[in-house]
Amino acid sequence: MTMERTMHTAIQLIFDPQHDTHRAQEVERVWRMKTGGGDGTQTQGALGLRHSDDKVLVLLNGPHTASQRWIQFEVMRAFIRGTPIVVVDVSCLRDERKLRAMRGRNPLDLLSAEAEAQTLWLKEFNPVTLKWQAARASSSVPRYAVPYPMDGNGPWLLSSIFPIYRWTEDWGERNLLAWIDEALSATQSAAQDAPPALVAAAASSPARFAVA
User: InterPro entries from the entry (predicted)?
Assistant: First the structure.
């Protein structure tokens, strides 16, 4: 994977629009500066910067992001599609009032996957009932339909599969493209390591959706 390809990759920024829009705009500014611009659209706190057919989901984690259930849904939907995922803590960035925030819980701590034979069972934590339940995006998918590095049978919290970066401590302005490149490379490598016959079988087997 080359940095040149990363510069031409589409990213979708997901964030809590009530608390983190100003912080997301700073990340967007850096992305545009590094890649030379691009069109952007903003809906429901989702900012899609489109540069090519490749896509990476970049989740911006603020003080209240983990409590947004629509964000759980979007992350799990990206997971079952095999989209590379990058989590960036932006609570250290200042908001429109020039205030920093307390670090929030990683939303990926509230999403899990567990393998049983060739099936991957997906769950999410419901903050209302305080119980784990079948993920709304999909309750299960064929194991090799998702190209992520997962050894054994789990269960895995998604936070154990995808690292979280701190915008300030990890030098986000300098390293954002590198984080995206690492996510692309990890997904590509896991896809190449999967048994071809099982990948073909997974491609022909639909996901199973939970009943709301």
Answer: ThsB__TIR-like_domain (IPR015032)
